[in-house]
Write a structure and sequence with these properties.
The chain is α+β, with helices and mostly antiparallel strands. About 60% of the residues lie in helices and about 10% in strands. The chain has helices at about 15-25, 40-45, 50-55, 55-75, 90-100, 105-115, 125-135, 140-145, 150-165, 185-195; strands at about 1-5, 30-35, 170-175, 175-180. β1, α1 and β2 form a beta-alpha-beta unit.
């Protein structure tokens, strides 16, 4: 089992989310999707925004690298403004989706809207459109997303991520072993295979 911790505002979580199912299937590794929030973790480190905004040279490189990565994977790419986006509502809705069987499809739709088409995922109207596009009636889902237990679930996942030492997204965790970044996905899967074969 591989835990996939991702944040909707995270740039490199986009390609990871769009390819993880296929590469994990080929590797024979089960994946558990874990939406969380980086904001509280950044704040605990004294950061008020993304490090890509603080360190502008690093940020310029990241946007170009992300564009190259998306091109290589055949993914559409459009830089969202502003950055980072507010992913709170999307994360809550994702937790609702994972109660049922549409969480992964919703997450991919959010990433495509945000980084593929430059939409503002912090706006409820965008989330509503994505839910309709997936064939759902938004109102009951959004009501559930505001329920205390869903808010608590997102908070608990974020706190778990912090306890695991997660400091960025995407992050992959196998038996407590942490791998950070889209480019570490295959390494995390190989580690999961070794762990499985030794048990």
């Amino acid at each position: 089992m591989l835990d996939f911790f991702f944040e909707f505002a995270s740039t490199y979580s986009y390609p990871a989310a769009m390819r993880i199912d296929e590469v994990a299937r080929r590797a024979g590794v089960a994946v558990r999707w874990r939406p969380f929030l980086l904001g509280p973790i950044f704040k605990a480190q004294g950061l008020e925004t993304s490090p890509f905004n603080i360190y502008t040279t690093k940020g310029r490189y990241m946007w170009r690298d992300l564009a190259r990565t998306c091109e290589e994977l055949g993914l559409p790419f459009r830089r969202p403004e502003p950055f980072p986006q507010n992913g709170l509502l999307a994360a809550r809705v994702a937790h609702v989706g994972f109660e049922q069987d549409w969480g992964e499809a919703f997450c991919r739709a959010v990433y495509q809207a945000e980084f593929g088409h430059g939409q503002q995922i912090g706006e409820e109207s965008v989330i509503r459109e994505l839910l309709v596009g997936l064939g759902f009636t938004p109102d009951p889902i959004l009501a559930r997303a505001h329920a205390p237990e869903i808010k608590d679930r997102l908070r608990a996942t974020t706190e778990e991520a912090e306890r695991l030492g997660i400091f960025g997204a995407p992050s992959f965790v196998v038996n407590g072993e942490l791998f950070w970044g889209n480019d570490r996905l295959e390494q995390a899967l190989r580690y999961a295979q070794r762990v499985h074969s030794s048990t």
